[in-house]
Write a structure and sequence with these properties.
By secondary structure, this protein is an all-alpha fold. The chain is built from 17 helices and no strands. The longest helix is centred in the N-terminal third of the chain and has 38 residues, at 3-40. The radius of gyration is 21 Å and the shape is globular.
């Protein structure tokens, strides 16, 4: 192995390992919600999985803002322009505060309407209302923490970012057990306990990031940049972030439509799909870590003007993502007996559906790994954010959703057939993604003409 490759892997491991750990902790908290609420009853599990779709949509906005932040911050950090990095941080925070407040208003004051979007079963709607009202407060804390944690990753503090985020998630995990089941003298709160645990953990995470901002001199929130950020940087931020936001909404709302379709196939379909998604999220941690790390790694090289090095890094990352996807799919197959052993509270039909879903979703991981690395990482690192929007708009809304809805509501195909069709989206993209990658439109230094 030559020195250049050794340096690449050293940088990648330093980025991917902490990010993967934090992704794993996030997935484990979701898993704990499912397993603990599943021990209460299937209704609690299904209701919370549907109510959590609201935060899933909110996370789409946060994802777009953090990708937009990474596009500029990674390149300016590679250029060693700290002032511009701090301006980008404040631009992102202003948008994040506004979005999180709007979601808080919707979830706190109109939870019934939100639940009725995802299901028409009265018991699930009523069970989800208290969850949304309590968890809505966590959205306000996330408005600061998610953006600042992203900036920490882009400014050489990836490990510390992981420690802060993971500490809050471990707290969430412990509070889930205490508040859901009423341990250590606390009342048994069930669904509301899961929501309160999430809110407390997010509050702690927010206070940790505020503390980091106050004590460090690496990258700080400077109030004057809230009012006087560079017009050029604002323009660039919106230019690169808006297509990503549109892409996230197109993909995410499409993914939410998958839950809507499954939600109208009955509680058994909802419960099985919820557990299958949690398993996919846990197994995908390394793949998503590679995707996030690739955006920072390639962006640093592009911002430094090392275009050939960035191109070589892109090639290595593509190969690595293919391997990671194949290993992840295999791991889902190997872990399925363990998952089934811990979900015995499901009905017989839901349990059978889950078993087959785990087998079916293993193929999904290869496409997910490659697309996360290439579309959300490499392409965005060079400001190439429009392709992902076009790709997902066609794949999700012209092909997959109409096909899934037709299969479910017109042909009345079995649950597993519908599930198979809905999980083809990541594979369908691959030929177009490969062709676009080879055009190298993403190989750009966005800071080259900036003073």
């Amino acid at each position: 192995m030559n020195i250049e490759k050794m340096l690449f892997y050293k940088k990648l491991i330093a980025l991917v390992f902490p990010i993967a750990i934090q992704n794993l902790m996030t997935a484990l908290v979701s898993a704990s919600d499912a397993l603990m609420l599943g021990r209460l009853n299937q209704t609690a599990l299904s209701a919370v999985s549907l109510a959590a779709q609201v935060q899933f949509v909110l996370n789409l906005f946060f994802t777009a803002l953090t990708i937009g932040t990474t596009i500029l911050a990674a390149q300016y950090w590679g250029k060693k322009d700290k002032d511009s990095v701090e301006e980008v941080l404040c631009i992102a925070l202003k948008l994040s505060f506004l979005i999180s407040f709007l979601f808080f208003i919707a979830a706190f004051f109109f939870p019934q309407i939100l639940m009725q979007v995802f299901t028409n079963e009265r018991l699930l709607v009523e069970a989800g209302i208290p969850y949304l009202r309590v968890v809505s407060w966590s959205y306000l804390f996330m408005g600061f923490s998610q953006i600042y944690l992203c900036m920490m990753k882009n400014s050489g503090r990836t490990t510390k970012s992981t420690i802060y985020g993971s500490s809050a998630l471990v707290l969430n995990l412990l509070l889930n057990a205490v508040l859901i089941f009423g341990l250590l003298g606390f009342p048994q709160m069930g669904i509301a306990g899961a929501a309160l645990a999430t809110t407390i953990a997010r509050a702690v995470e927010c206070f940790l990031t505020i503390f980091e901002n106050l004590k460090t001199g690496v990258v700080r929130v400077r109030l004057n940049y809230f009012y006087s950020a560079s017009v050029r940087l604002k323009r660039d931020y919106y230019r690169y972030t808006m297509p990503v936001l549109a892409n996230e909404l197109v993909w995410g709302c499409g993914f939410t439509m998958f839950s809507v379709i499954m939600g109208h196939l009955g509680s058994d379909a909802v419960a099985a799909n919820s557990v299958a998604n949690i398993v996919k999220n846990i197994i995908a941690c390394v793949c998503l870590g590679i995707g996030t790390g690739s955006g920072i790694l390639v962006g640093n090289e592009l911002g430094s003007g090392n275009l050939e090095t960035a191109k070589k890094y892109g090639s290595l990352l593509c190969k690595l993502s293919l391997l990671a996807g194949a290993v992840s799919g295999l791991f889902i197959l190997l872990s399925s007996p363990l998952v089934l052993m811990f979900t015995t509270s499901l009905t017989e039909q839901a349990h059978t559906c889950l078993q087959m879903m785990l087998y079916l979703c293993s193929y999904y991981m290869i496409g997910k790994s490659i697309n996360s690395t290439v579309i959300a990482g490499i392409f965005c690192a060079g400001g190439d954010t429009t392709f992902g929007l076009l790709c997902d708009a066609v794949t999700m809304w012209i092909i997959i959703i109409p096909l899934g809805a037709f299969a479910a509501f017109v042909l009345h195909l079995p649950i597993l057939a519908v599930y198979f069709l809905l999980n083809l989206d990541e594979l369908i993209k691959l030929p177009a993604v490969y062709r676009h990658y080879k055009q190298y439109k993403w190989l750009k230094n966005l800071t080259a003409n900036q003073q």
